[in-house]
Amino acid sequence: MASHRRPKQPSRTRVTVLTATAAAAVALSSQAAHADPKPSKSEVKAKVDKLYHEAEAATEKYNGAKEQQDKLKKQVDALQDKVARGQDELNSLRGELGSIATAQYRSGGIDPSVALFLASDPDSFLDQASALDQLTVKQTESLQKIQSKQRTLAQQRQEAQDKLGDLADVRKALGENKKKYQGKLADAQRLLNSLTQAERAKIQQEENRASRASSERVELGNEAPASNRGAAALSAAATQLGKPYVSGGSGPNSYDCSGLTQWAFAQAGVNISRTTYTQQNDGMKIGRSQLKPGDLVFFNGLSHVGFYAGNNQILHAPKPGTVVRYESMDYMGTFQFGVRI
Questions:
Q1: 20 to 30 A Cα–Cα from 128, which one of 93, 156, 197, 210?
Q2: CA-closest candidate to residue 69, choices 158, 168, 182, 160
Q3: For the residues of 103-131, what is the DSSP string, one character each?
Q4: Which is nearest to 306 in space by CA: 254, 264, 248?
């Protein structure tokens, strides 16, 4: 007799699993169909350049905080030295006052009229009484000096404490900006690593074409320099062609953009500040049509600076992975203004 068993129904759990698997497969295939294509070499280079600009802005803020930290440290050291010397002076004044008090104690305790009556030599006693009056005057002066010195010391201690607080804030900003530019550089390197070896080589070739060694002739024209000092600074910068860009570098072995301009002007006997954000105020601002060799030129929201070298060329320390070189202003991004020192 044939069996009439009902066919076994799939369990609810198995149906759920199969459904979920199918849904996942559909989702994955949909994601694959809509996945972003791998960025091209030019897109990666554009993103890397943007990251380098952002890293340079953070570097300039780091340089500014570093300069501020050094100034504050000197001020704090000077104030603390003043406080220490002031405390020594206060201790000396207190010692003088103690000596006066001791002298008065030893000579005191007898009414002056009685002392005069008992004195074997009244004239000698009157001389001693006059000396005691002078001691009292000196004691008053000493007390006044001590009070004045205490007030001065309290003010200096408070000022030193305030400066120490400022120093702590600057050191915090220093660390944050260092972390920021290091993070931007790391992001840029990861993007470059996503390219093939051939693509990276192509980008390097483009950089090499943009870079000019110190032995190469650059058509700078015969434009008159901005000033003797500007010409001397530009000439000094030209001796550094081929030196590597390093964030925070201020010479003589490596440079960032503002480190190069500061170093070059120092060789010309001119002291300018350390960062792009402050160098913009070290001279007179001028437009692009007024530029002459030796002027400073600022780009990209004041995050980058270089020397105008003539014939639309600048001499600068461009970015990580490059060297000090000449470059056309047409490849520099947004021009802000020039500054004539």
A1: 93
A2: 168
A3: HHHHH-SS-HHHHHHH-S-HHHHHHHHHH
A4: 264
CA distances from 127 to 124, 169, 327, 328 (A): 5, 63, 91, 92
Give the DSSP H/E element, type plus range, for residue 307.
Answer: strand 304-310
- Per-residue pLDDT for 138 more than 80? no
Q: Quickly count: other Cβ atoms within 10 Å of residue 26's Cβ.
A: 10
The pair of structure tokens assigned to 144 is 């006044």
pLDDT band at residue 18 under the 50/70/90 scheme: very low
CB 298 within 8 A of CB 304: yes
213: three-class secondary structure by DSSP? coil
Sort residue 217 into left (φ over 0), alpha (ψ -120 to 50) or beta.
beta
Query: Closest by alpha carbon to 167, among 75, 79, 83?
Result: 75
pLDDT digits (tens, 9 = 90+) for 79-103: 888 778 878 777 777 776 666 556 5
Residue with token string 């790391």: 186
Confidence of residue 40 (pLDDT cuts 50, 70, 90): confident
3-state helix, strand, coil in the chain (%, to 5): 65, 10, 25
Write out the catalytic residue numbers: 257, 304, 316
Question: Tens digits of per-residue pLDDT, 179-218?
Answer: 887 888 888 888 888 888 888 778 777 766 655 443 354 6
- For residues 110, 114, 116, 119, the Cα torsion angle rounded to the nearest 10 degrees is -80
User: How buried is residue 34: exposed, middle or buried, by Cβ count under 10 Å (0-12/13-18/19+)?
Assistant: exposed
Q: Would you say 286 and 294 are in contact if contact means Cβ atoms under 8 Å apart?
A: no
